[in-house]
Amino acid sequence: MAKLPRYLFPKDYYADPSANVFNGRLYVYPSHDWEAGAAFDDDGGHFQMKDYHVISMDDVENGEVTDHGMILHVDQVPWAEKQMWDNDVIEKDGKYYLVFSAKDYNGVFHLGVAVADKPEGPFVPQEHPIRSSFSIDPCLFKDDDGQIYCYFGGLWGGQLQWYKSPEKLLKEGVDLGPAPDKKTQLYAPADVPALSSSVVRMSDDMLQFAEATHEVVILDKEGKPLKAGDPHRFFEASWMHKYNGKYYFSYSTGDSHFLCYAIGDNPYGPFTYQGVLLDPVVGWTTHHSIVEYKGEWFLFYHDCVPSNDVTHLRSLKVQRLFYNEDGTIRKVENE
Q1: 44 pLDDT exceeds 70?
Q2: Signal peptide position in this chain (predicted)?
Q3: What span, in angstroms and rounded, lies between the C-alpha atoms of 193 and 183?
Q4: Which of these is catalytic: 181, 236, 296, 333?
């Protein structure tokens, strides 16, 4: 068995990999880092991604990785101005739907949809973003019954806290300390419930949400929601996969730099926290996907080793992932 991890495409800087199997081939849809010259800021303004590529392979260990080129550029999207962040793709009825996050001309993140006839694109964007969409990091999950769900959300620069404000906590008498601002959830008292990712079922045509969004609640082993002060609480990078009938929700903890996971009995949750998938990597962002291919499970992620820890220039990596007999996941060792 060949040793992993492996850098998938060292010729370019790709990050935030969404891995999917289409027509017997493994496709990875990343964001595309580049040196834009933008100044560093707390809201990720230096991440000025402007287009998407897709890479594919038929052998994760040693196979050639093909870059199929650009599949969508921000200039093609009427409503989007900049910052083409994370995306994911799903197949439905022979069409391929790319759901992506980008900022509009008011500086607000939304989710958009682009459609293609084949997994390598090119993708044609819709004129407007998904109605009532917000924040970043979409993950598309097709359940066994064919229903498709979108998980999304990211705190701080991802703007999730704009839509899930602490107002209801204040009404319940929770003391949040100083006047809340957009970073409240990072500096809130440790016992305040953490903000959560969102999940929503997609419409039959894959162009809109079919319902109001639901909170993805992560519980501790005692059945209580994780708190804002917990280093394992949700921050961004939702991913959903299914194994032996259970639903595995994995995510990044953001400023504490872990990849963690929780297990539930249905797509909406709640999900019970299980543990850390991956310790912090080089670079302060962590984003991933999990997929089964040819009978093996793989964790795709990124780090900043090739760019000498330049955090906005990240490189894709892949590592095997293994389950224990009880369904928990063995922690992946980044090497």
Answers
A1: yes
A2: none
A3: 14
A4: 236
What does 185-206 look like in DSSP terms, one character per residue? Answer: HHHS-TTSBPP-EEEEEBPTTS
Question: How far apart (Å, rounded) are the C-alpha atoms in residues 76 and 69?
Answer: 15
- Active-site pick, 16, 33, 230, 303: 16
Q: Is 231 helix (H, G, I), strand (E, B) or coil?
A: coil
Domain ranges of the chain: 6-330
Catalytic status, residue 58: no
pLDDT of residue 182: 44
Return the higher-pLDDT residue of 322 and 186: 322
Question: Is it the case that residue 26 has pLDDT exceeding 80?
Answer: yes
Mean pLDDT value of segment 192-221:
95
Instruction: For 46-99, write each residue's pLDDT tens digit.
Output: 899 999 999 999 999 999 999 999 999 999 999 999 999 999 999 999 999 999
What values do phi and psi take at 76, rounded to 5?
-85, -10
Q: Give the number of other Cβ atoms within 10 Å of residue 1's Cβ.
A: 6
> Counting Cβ atoms within 10 Å, is residue 325 exposed (0-12), middle (13-18) or buried (19+)?
exposed
Tokens of 248: 């595995």
Cross-strand bridge partners of residue 236: 252
**CATH number, domain 6-330:** 2.115.10.20
| Burial per residue of 68-83, b for 16 or more beta-carbon CB atoms within 10 angstroms, e otherwise | eebbbebeebeebebb
